[in-house]
Amino acid sequence: MGHSQAEKAASRERVLRIAARKVRTDGVGGLGVADVMKEAGLTHGGFYKHFASRDDLVTQAAAAALTEGSAKMERAARKNERDARAGLLDAYLSEQHRDTPATGCALVPLGAAAGRDGTDGDVHLKDAYERQVRAYLDLIAGLDENAGDAEDARAEAVLTLSALVGAVLMSRAVADGDLSDEILETVNRRLKHRAEPRPAQA
Question: Taking CA 154 as the corner, what is the angle to CA 149 and CA 155, rounded to the nearest 5 degrees?
Fold first, then answer.
């Protein structure tokens, strides 16, 4: 790759990284091309060297934001060597995750936009969102050592992921800090309780 091509690729990657962060914090509707280009240190006029349109940038930024989550969740889980599932719960339902949406899971801020996809002209996010949901479900199911069979593990993964995303969404949305903490702590405690080994049936 020539020097100019390498610079162009690096600039595009920088724009995409900034846009992905903004999508996590402001959603797809709040992504402004001028702001992204300015933060990237590039001119607004140079935008079309990298992307076909704002919708193209939004789609790619959202997909990038979603995809980045898998590696982060897996790393969080592996930090707890004795109980990977508990490690994932502790990281996802932490105050740090709640308070730093720019680096958090994109399933939380992008759910509403993906739900509107195809109904009001919004950017096409459903496929990227679904791929990430499926990836998370596979990851979570694989961490549940106490699940009975594959069907049970899948069902618990669906419940767990739904609770995780919903808890972070609500904890960010409420004004009362104590209630916000309660949501995170209660969901964490209850999900861990569900994972405890059940006594054998007589």
Answer: 100
Residues with Cβ within 8 Å of 153's Cβ and at least 6 positions away in sequence, in order, are: 141, 142, 144, 147
Q: How far apart are CA 78 and CA 95, in angstroms?
A: 19
Long-range contacts of 168-175 (CB under 8 A, 24+ apart): 168/92, 168/93, 168/97, 168/98, 168/104, 168/105, 168/108, 169/108, 169/111, 171/98, 172/98, 172/101, 172/108
pLDDT grade, residue 189 (50/70/90)? very high
Q: Please write the tens of the pLDDT for every residue from 86-133.
A: 999 999 999 999 999 998 999 999 998 888 865 444 447 888 899 999
Side chain identity at residue 134, one-letter code: R
| pTM given for the model | 0.84
Task: Read off the pLDDT of residues 47-58 as tens digits, 9 standing for 90 and up.
Answer: 988 898 888 888
Residues in the chain: 202
Structure tokens at 150: 């594959």
Q: Cα–Cα distance between 45 and 48 in angstroms, integer?
A: 7
Amino acid, single-letter form, for residue 62 = A
Question: Could you give the CA distance from residue 69 to residue 76 in angstroms, rounded to a whole number?
Answer: 10
Question: What CA dihedral angle connects 158, 162, 163 and 169, to 10 degrees?
Answer: 160
